Fold:
Amino acid sequence: KMLLITNLLLTILTVFTPLDVHNPQSDCASCFVSDAAQVLSPETVNELNNHCYKLKQEVGVEYAIVVVDSIDRDDETAFAEELFNYWGIGNSNNNSGVLLLYVTSMRAVRFQTGAGIEGLLPDAYFKGLLEEKMFPLMREDKNDEAFLLAMTDIEECLTSEEARQELFVEHVHERGFWWNVLIVYVALAFLALAVLAIWFYCR
Structure:
């Protein structure tokens, strides 16, 4: 009987593939929360969007939050990684993105990060955040509080002076690369003009 009820619930729930998840960035530049399961209040979604937008503006880190009923596999880690790459979360040059995935039917929460901020937010950090802060609240169905607490905690880590310096260095390296490319193009343009000038003069 229990198996029958479980199968019935899974039939009712929407099963998502990474391609099915709605990308909130297609709605607006300040939208970062995709809550298909509707476990977060509209007020919390707005507050999370504001924090995510501020984080992106201040330190260039893109933080996406996804809540779905069910996924097309048993491995939420693989799903989060595929979704992270499919959306291209974070800057493509320094890979500074964070994805928070919550699958309600599995009661599974997964954080996925880009390689550019793994040093600032290692797996041990997320393990402590989940076990000590998020899960106790979620067990009491306080999802709004749990997600806001995680947002605040991550925001504090990424906007610390140490994190700002590391992210700034990465940004400078990225900017330096494109600056060098621009210099090469300008130099080639001047060289082409010089060759043309010499050609006209000697003609």
Remarks:
- Strands lie at 15-16, 33-35, 62-68, 70-71, 97-103, 108-113.
- The mean pLDDT is 86.
- DSSP finds six helices and six strands in the chain.
